[in-house]
């Protein structure tokens, strides 16, 4: 059964949820990360079909859209700029309180907690946030945080695990989000 709580904000993962970033995969996590090459390849990252129209619906409804991802913030921002997509905030990999010496990758449940501090989310309760992701981890972290979870099946590498996580919503195309938020 689908969740019936109102949705006042949408937060999405970046890779394989909002953008097809397959061209970056071999480079973005390696110890020999080549930032110059990653920057060049961001132009090849594309929004999945259906997102542009869905983003217009979110804007029309007045629902803020943010990104919580374990990708690097610079890569996300470069891709957003190259594809002219506006989001209200990006929280990535190390979170807001980046400790360079530690380089601790912050769990997404903690990044979602930090998102509630964003000015556009002031007064929004966690149960009225929808987090979209393409992995079991994304769904489990959204549940740990206490928000609604949306499993995005359009480019996931783990459909069975995603289903087993028992998300609140199952999305097979980005346009499915339009029906969920209306």
Please sum up the structure shown.
The protein is of the alpha/beta class and 182 residues long. It has helices at residues 25-28, 35-41, 51-61, 73-83, 108-115, 136-145, 159-164, 176-181, and strands spanning 9-12, 19-20, 46-47, 65-69, 89-92, 129-133, 148-152, 169-171.
Can you describe this structure?
With 182 residues, the chain is an alpha/beta fold. The protein has a single domain, classed as HAD superfamily/HAD-like (Rossmann fold, 3-Layer(aba) Sandwich), CATH 3.40.50.1000. The chain is built from eight helices and eight strands; from the N terminus they run ββααβαβαβαβαβαβα. The longest helix has 11 residues, at 51-61. The radius of gyration is 15 Å and the shape is globular. Helices cover 35% and strands 16% of the residues. The strands form two sheets. It has a six-stranded parallel sheet with strand order 5-4-1-6-7-8, sandwiched between helices. Strands 2-3 form a two-stranded antiparallel sheet.
Average predicted local confidence, pLDDT? 89
Distance between the termini: 17 Å
Shape: globular
Number of strands: 8
> How many discrete domains?
1
Cα radius of gyration in angstroms: 15 Å
The CATH class is Alpha Beta
What count of helical segments does DSSP give? 8
**Residue fraction in strands:** 15-25%
* Poorly predicted runs of 5 or more residues: none
Write out the CATH superfamily name.
HAD superfamily/HAD-like
């Amino acid at each position: 059964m689908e969740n019936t709580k109102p949705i006042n904000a949408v937060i999405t993962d970046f890779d394989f949820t909002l953008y097809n970033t397959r061209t970056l995969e071999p480079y973005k996590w390696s110890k020999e990360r080549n930032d110059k090459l990653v920057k060049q390849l961001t132009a090849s990252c594309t929004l999945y079909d259906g997102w542009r129209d869905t983003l217009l619906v979110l804007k029309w409804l007045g629902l803020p859209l943010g990104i919580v991802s374990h990708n690097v913030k610079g890569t996300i921002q470069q891709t957003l700029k190259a594809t002219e997509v506006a989001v209200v905030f990006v929280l990535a990999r190390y979170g807001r309180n980046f400790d360079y010496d530690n380089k601790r990758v912050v769990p997404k449940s903690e990044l979602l907690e930090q998102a509630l501090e964003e000015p556009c989310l002031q007064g929004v309760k966690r149960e009225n946030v929808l987090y979209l992701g393409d992995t079991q981890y994304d769904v489990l972290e959204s549940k740990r945080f206490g928000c609604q979870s949306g499993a995005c099946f359009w480019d996931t590498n783990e459909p069975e695990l995603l289903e087993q996580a028992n998300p609140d919503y199952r999305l097979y195309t980005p346009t499915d989000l339009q029906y969920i938020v209306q």
